[in-house]
Amino acid sequence: MDAAPPYLSGQFLLAMPGMGDPRFAGSVIAMCVHDPAGALGLCLHQANRELTVPELMRQLEIDPGGTPEVRVLVGGPVEPGRGFVLHSTDYAGQDTRFVGNRWALTGTLDVLKAIAGGEGPAKWLVALGYAGWGPGQLEDELGQHGWHVHPGEDTLLWNCRAERRWTEAWGLTGIDLRHLSASAGRA
């Protein structure tokens, strides 16, 4: 009997330099779900230049209160109108899914209302859209060397600006990006 593949929930996917899919160039993806049915992650490397979290709340008819003027992230190309909050584990809402012991993911409005009311998680990021893979699809991509898997550190989520995450994440791996090539060579 074959062993189950190592599932990546709670880890980070880093796009390799020169990755063939331009939608994921420079990507850092927080993997939130990965099981036999497929995978779901949130891209962390690109802020929506036109939308802040308080503005999103106002569009959803939620009074933002004192919510900080933080940009909403472009979470990925799948369902760009669907929202997610990736947050610390000190909050659980209607559909919160805990991702290892590292963070939690909520996709219902209750978490935004809690944040606006000062009763939400201590740390959070808001994203529209997600990166998704069908059964076996991510495993195939990993075999083609488009992604580097890294456990990373939670500072990538909470203490790093979106546009710096890819470079910072590679720095945490101990791999110097200057030594990576977008094409294979011959020995």
TrEMBL record:
Which InterPro entries does the protein's record reference? Answer: AlgH-like
> What is the similarity comment for this entry?
Belongs to the UPF0301 (AlgH) family.
Domain of life, per lineage: Bacteria
Its Gene Ontology cellular component terms are: cytosol
- What protein name applies here? UPF0301 protein H3309_13100
